[in-house]
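Please check this one:

***
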Amino acid sequence: MSEAATDESTGLGRKALNRIVGRFLALCDERLLRIRATLTHEQRSLFDLLPLLWHVNHPMLPGFVSSDTPAGMAGYRPGRDELLLARRYARGFKEEKQPHRELPILGLYLMGSMGSLGQTAGSDMDFWLCYSGDLDERGRRLLRHKAALLENRAAEVGLHAHFFLMHAESFRDGAAEQLSKESSGHTQHTLLLEEFYRTGILIAGNPVLWWVVPPEHEHDYTRYTRHLVEKRFIRPQQWLDFGGLQTLPAEEFFGVAHWQLFKGIDAPYKSLLKLMLLEAYAAEYPNVDWLCMETKRAVYQGDELDVDSVDPYLLILQRITDYLGSRNETERLQLARRAFYFKAGHGLMRSGAVSDWRHRLMLGLCHRWGWSDAEIRLLDTRPEWKLERVVDERNALVSELSRSYRLLTEFAREQDAIANINTRELALLGRKLYAALDKRPGKIDRVNPGISRDLSERTLWLRKLTDAPARWQLFLHPPEE
């Protein structure tokens, strides 16, 4: 039984709950250190200032909209470093004492690849800005305006930041954004929550309630959390409750598969890994062992937590490896490893490669896979690959994406789930898939979906056909006479 399990008759376990929360916070701190180490001084300054910027309104600070924009972060007090950063913008800035009231902003979380082996220089910073249910539409509109200003400020220093306004109760009830560049809306509610629990880093505000539900009680999340409240182990207003992960509608597998194939047109390596993970989940259905549960089990097992062992992207790769290994699908596993290497984007053998914790982890993986230095160098030249190599790679990727999608579609049909998918979203996705992948006479296929940076050739050969004077042939190599 997990350390933090409580005796429901005596109400024991409060100290254990505090220890568990402390371990999750320590894990967040480790990942934050890794993120900050990759940022420039200017980027780090803005990143460190974000909690304060959501805590106060000041006309000299970035993101200011108005004095009545909702402000105030639950459980947050700016430290000396944040105050010094603020004074770079506003001399004499002092923290305003918050009146005793319910603060409108309950938490700021960073989720996604940041702080993991999947982080690259171009990785997005996806923030969940969690707000109180007391906030009206005008207040939410002001927060969106402030979020847009802060996103623009982040872009000025080279950060790709996105702020998503989140209301925990609405999320539990199934509310979701409609189809946009960053979200697939109704098609990924549960899987989005799993990713949040696996990758979410608390920047400021309240912790998530999911942390203090032991792994063995995940199946009865609602009853267990009610018990914690009734026995006064916790105060609900001091926690964010996005709900448990007990069930996953089968239609969500199909919807997310559709979405990942859609995204795979432009970013095939990332989508390939997510589709393979979905396959592995589908093979376990309905008793899916979520990756975030591996992190939770590791946290609950003791104080000595190796941050590398619960790296969110390494967990994905390990689950895919176990799944494909059980099916003896060696070629697919090699493609998955190649996709992982490219997604990580560290270029181990490139001149000037930074030797940091990501380099160490990735190099260890490559050696474990039996990759030689020559093989790694070949992969590192991908930005310079030319047409023939790119076409081979593109065909392998399209074939694999289509295969995974087909398997997941068959799974959805077996579960009678397709009829429950949001038809408007599927129609939007379907039109782009048809336009991108359908083969028609006269259509020019796009053969380089982000594989190579430059397909140009130094030399091309033209040959005029003698039996058809108006026709020419183009060759990459000298044509045979």
Summary: The chain has 16 helices and six strands. The two ends are 77 Å apart (CA to CA). The mean pLDDT is 86. The longest strand covers residues 124-131.
